[in-house]
Amino acid sequence: MAAPIRLTFHGTILVAVFVVLILMAAAPARQAYEQKQAVAREKARLEALKTENRSLEQRLARLNDPEYQEKLAREQLGLVRPGETSYVVVPGPTPTQTVTADEPANRAWHEKLASWFKKLFD
Known about the structure:
The protein is an all-alpha fold. The chain has a domain at 44-80. The chain is 66% helix and 0% strand. It contains three helices and no strands. The longest helix has 55 residues, at 9-63.
């Protein structure tokens, strides 16, 4: 059987120093990890903003196009060129309320009242 390992005074001091060094290195390692995570988040945010910026630049370029401006003026403002005739389509009248077959319009008021009470308690 092997002899048990015996820890000397110098060995104990050496182990204690290593433990203290590891504990001291934990906080900076955690900070470095958090900073790397923050940098990664900011890079993703930067890419999203670049994409949005490209989209806005394309929209701005489209808005500066005279043909697109004319299209918007015609569609949204109803503008026409001189000499053109503009037509406005007005929606038709809304359909009136129709009388159902079980309620003829020429019933007496007391029949309508009785029918209403009947529907109420059915």
